[in-house]
From TrEMBL, chain A:
Protein name, entry field: tRNA uridine 5-carboxymethylaminomethyl modification enzyme isoform X1
Lineage of origin: Eukaryota, Viridiplantae, Streptophyta, Embryophyta, Tracheophyta
GO molecular function, one term: flavin adenine dinucleotide binding
Organism from which the protein derives: Olea europaea subsp. europaea
Entry cofactors: FAD
Keyword set includes Flavoprotein: yes
Keywords noted in UniProt: Cytoplasm, FAD, Flavoprotein, NAD, tRNA processing
Protein's GO biological process: mitochondrial tRNA wobble uridine modification; tRNA methylation
Annotated tRNA uridine 5-carboxymethylaminomethyl modification enzyme C-terminal subdomain domain residues: 622-693
Statement: the UniProt record of this protein carries the keyword Lipid biosynthesis: no
From TrEMBL, chain B:
Protein name per Swiss-Prot or TrEMBL: Mitochondrial GTPase
Family stated for the protein in its record: Belongs to the TRAFAC class TrmE-Era-EngA-EngB-Septin-like GTPase superfamily. TrmE GTPase family.
SUPFAM superfamilies: P-loop containing nucleoside triphosphate hydrolases
Domain of life per record: Eukaryota
GO cellular component: chloroplast; cytosol
Lineage: Eukaryota, Viridiplantae, Streptophyta, Embryophyta, Tracheophyta
Gene Ontology terms for molecular function: GTP binding; GTPase activity; identical protein binding; metal ion binding
Keywords: Cytoplasm, GTP-binding, Hydrolase, Magnesium, Metal-binding, Nucleotide-binding, Potassium, tRNA processing
Subcellular location: Plastid, Chloroplast
Pfam families membership: MMR_HSR1 (PF01926), MnmE_helical (PF12631), TrmE_N (PF10396)
Cited NCBIfam families: mnmE_trmE_thdF, small_GTP
Record organism: Olea europaea subsp. europaea
Domain TrmE-type G, residue spans: 305-472
Major location category of this protein: plastid
UniProt keyword GTP-binding present: yes
Amino acid sequence: MATTLSLHLTRIVSQFSVHSSLFSPLSSAKQRPRLLNCRQSLRFHGRRGFFVSSHAAPRRLFSISASTTSQEWDKHSDASNERYDVIVVGGGHAGCEAALSSARIGAKTLLLTLNIDRIAWQPCNPAVGGPAKSQLVHEVDALGGEIGKVADRCYLQKRVLNISRGPAVRALRAQTDKREYASEMKKIVESTPNLSIREAMVTDILVGKNDNVEGVCTFFGMNFYAPSVVLTTGTFMSGKIWVGKASMPAGRAGESASHGLTENLQQLGFETDRLKTGTPARVDCRTVDFSGLEPQHGDEEVNWFSYDPDYHLEREQMCCYLTRTTKSTHQLIKDNLHETPTYGGWVEAKGPRYCPSIEDKIVRFQDKESHQIFLEPEGRSVPELYVQGFSTGLPERLQLPLLRTLPGLENCSMLRPAYAVEYDYFPAHQCLPSLMTKKIEGLFFSGQINGTTGYEEAAAQGIVSGINAARHSAGKSLIVLERETSYIGTLIDDLVTKDLREPYRMLTSRSEHRLFLRSDNADNRLTPLGRDIGLIDDRRWKIYLDKKARILEEKQRLKTTRISGGDLAAEITEVSRQPVRDSSTLESLLKKPHVQYKILDKHGFGNNLLSRMDKECVEIDIKYEGFIVRQQNQLQQMVNRQHRQLPDDLDYYAMTTLSHEAREKLSKVRPRTIGQARRVGGVSPADVTALLIILESNRRRAHEERKHQMLTSIMADANQEVSESPLKETISP
Amino acid sequence: MALQPAFRFLLRHLPATISSIFPKLSIPVHRKLSILNSSSPKPISPTTQITWRAAKENKLVSDKDERFGNGTVSSAESVVNSSTIAAIVTSLCGPPAAVGIVRLSGPSAVSIVGRVFRPASKKKRRGPDWSPVSHVVEYGVVVDSHGNVIDEVLVVPMLGPKSYTREDVVELQCHGSEVCLHRVLRACLDAGARIAEPGEFTLRAFLNGRLDLSQAENVGKLISAKSVAVADSALAGIQGGFSSLVKSLRAQCIKLLTEIEARLDFDDEMPPLELNPVIDEIRGMLQEVDDALETADYDKLLQSGLQIAIVGRPNVGKSSLLNAWSKSERAIVTEIAGTTRDIVEANISVRGIPVTLLDTAGIRDTDDIVEKIGVERSEAVATSADVILMTVSATEGWTLEDEKLLERIQCNKSGSSSTPGVLVINKIDCAPSSLCDWVNTLSSSFNKHVFTSAVSGQGIPDLEAAIIELAGLNRIPTGGRKWTVNQRQCEQLVRTREAFIRLKSSIEEEIPLDFWTIDLREAALALGQISGEDISEEVLSNIFGKFCIGK
């Protein structure tokens, strides 16, 4: 088993190199010519600035100021050193991972953020992980990212969800201290070599002659130059927050929105749309009566996001509480539906279906009498409680009465009202799977700008775009995580192939081959890649290799150790309701239903050198071997079938056998493979068949032509060289 | 080659039906249509609509030169379907038929026909372009590129999507001789059509979503059908009985998958999954797959038929039995033992299954060199037949020679002794059946025994019933479902079945919920391959094997 599994992994890893090589000619072709054409492009930008201003009246002020400064800069260009390899715009969860990975790889990186005090802020639920999201966190960690370590360091409570549903859907969730989380991350960002931070509002992207990015321009007229720019604008681009009918421009409550960038990108030809999301009210925990509420404690045995044991430091846990909506909650909402933005009809942007507001839940599930509401602490030093499952668009005057309908909150006081935020995003089919945009070379998008929701989704995209931005600046090939290698790959593949129009949240069901994408093997899958990229240092690499060796050895031991009779056999017979034959291997015992590694430990047949996580890996690999092998076969079949490349120059509009919608969507998305083509919305299985038939008949025709050419050339040769030979007669009839 | 049965089926099922290929069958419709065609004034709106359509078609033609020969096409990928194909779709073998058909399909079918067809009606000749009304027959002549009349034809325009391929289809009903048909086809090719590859019309029907893969496969089966039962099963396949079963099974799998996966992600908001309905549903699906798989054997029978060897001692009435069963005088029958020297074949049909009866030389030790070879052949036939009829004489009873013969047959079949055997006690008219108690002692050596009289024909229906039971046909319901599954579909059904069985055991062993999805997904994948919704290399090569594209 061990050998087959690792074999497959190496196969997957080798796929990266195969696919990344796709990009190598592109990026290596332009290895740092930027110093040469910088002056020209600056002038070009100045012209474009005026051009923009004449079009968009409200933007005039910004553009003119931007262009004048660029002219000024022209004179003093030698004095300035605002030149970087990578510029990351935004200091949220995507921005931090992007900036850190880029700087750690060795790229000189600049992080531009609106407010340095809000780096890695958790404006919504201060929690990390949960179903599918935890896999993302593990994977980011396996690649050498930061989110898992910070969550491990700042947790208030940790629980493993979905324990009984199978190892692939098991999910770790951590409630974190929001203040501590932000300050920890800020410390890390501030202390990373190669990484500078600056407060700024970016209003323009500077674009060179070849539709390549050259830098950014800020509201106050600064230009920063870099061949790679990562945009992680979150909810800030033209952000607008709503409480009831009242609204104001803001990215988050109390923070100003960023203006100008959307229009700039629209001018560059990007398609934009609006999304909305919301956050519930915060209540003062000192005003809540917890006595009647069901407490939810953390796990006794704490699990970890990071594979680095240096971060496995246990701390005291805090308790969450469970309450429920009541009849009067439902009544109050039904009576005031017209006061909510969605049902009142004054906000059109689509919200996340998977994170619905309380009024959505009540309208959609009419027959459900009550919904669960969780009360979660936001930190050790703050009195705020997050009311999970209770986000609402109702006006502020109704919010406190609404909160007070919940048991335990009858006398609560509200610290912050719930609000919704509307923001601009760029449908991510405009990105390549490397997260570089198709239109502008060197420009990367990550996080909510791509239409996702969630810190984990943001971090996952952030690390990929950070790595690729740095590699792009260094003239290296870009990496692509294929769908079947990881949840990160699945996430990005969904983003770039589907024309998503609502916030995208990671779900376990989005990954078809999740048994292979477990949290316990994310290091197996991705750490070698992280090592190749340069994000895994020698210490981490040794930890990884040691763990792998331990597990391999243990599997070998279980395979060869045999027992006959005894207490262990008796207990296993009892637990599994299956007889134990004499001289059974420990491996065969572990395969029986309901038998866990713990039983081996209990009877002294375990291995003390193994950590709990190691034992879990061994147990899963052995116990579910049959399923894993089967899934692997499915995967292999699928990979063979779906990784068939689509030529870049396919003219979909000329393929009359495709439906009109498919022609349109495929032309828009331009998938790289058959697999991606079939995941594009609006493309039916019949369309895929037709496409395959066209490809296959093209292939056959090309083959025939080659054969024909070869034959004619042979004939020509034969005619020339041995004109007297009898061969000639046999060939030319 | 000829697609007429499919076409006939199509005509029967299209909403706006027009005349069939065979005048005899279609006189009433035909007449009605021609009345409509000649006398009734046309409503204006369809005509204008069609003129616009024709104009569009013309533009298409002028943009593109479609006069590529057959095979040597080398332009872009759109060739597969943007071209207009033409072929003679009626059979050219055998004596000339009264009527033959040239069919065209593709975006410029109408304009190509417009170039070679001259309507007889003067009204129609006025416009520069031929603008037919869909599903209305027109009469006229076909001219070649020099304007010479080459045949008198009926034109049947069927504009897309109401056509076999969902493209514009025009059929030219010509005189049935090979010369006429080839001249008309030539004229169409000269006017811009390309000759169709074998099966290409059906391929287009498949690509345009008119048929799914299993339906398309059945078209081929229907065309080559040699018995009513084969034709019925193919027709049932085209009509989608099997496809809809596969689709509904697949939909069920996906529904279950969704149910389970929703619980993985949103456990709090969902009611808990109830196990018993899930298990019942899986059991139900398994049953349906099993039922479908049973038809696979039937399909094999329909395609290859049954071989039944009649063996026995000389002079027990084997040849008489063959004659009686096939209602012919196929074999020579005399009183002399050893009359039959070689294998005599007769073809009959048992409940629609083609059956070949093989009469053999009576098996005995003999010095006659000819008879000796005959005996050897008999034994060889006995080893390869699907069913063996061991014939004995009721008057003589079970003799020592019979015993020896049975041993000989059985030891020849080393290993594969599974060939079913039927003991036939012939000449029952000469001896009362009460004398045949010995039969019961032999019941272990034979699957069945039947009393017959080859002279009176008594017992032949019993024999047929025994054969049907042995071939497993009694499990196939005579009414209701008639479709059968072919080899390719069978393989995927077996894959589906295995997945369901594993799923059941996973549930019974209380394996966690998430693991169920693996086998459910496997089942959905296998089912998707049957209908061609999920395209694997195998399906693709199947399509290319069947339709000869791009060679």
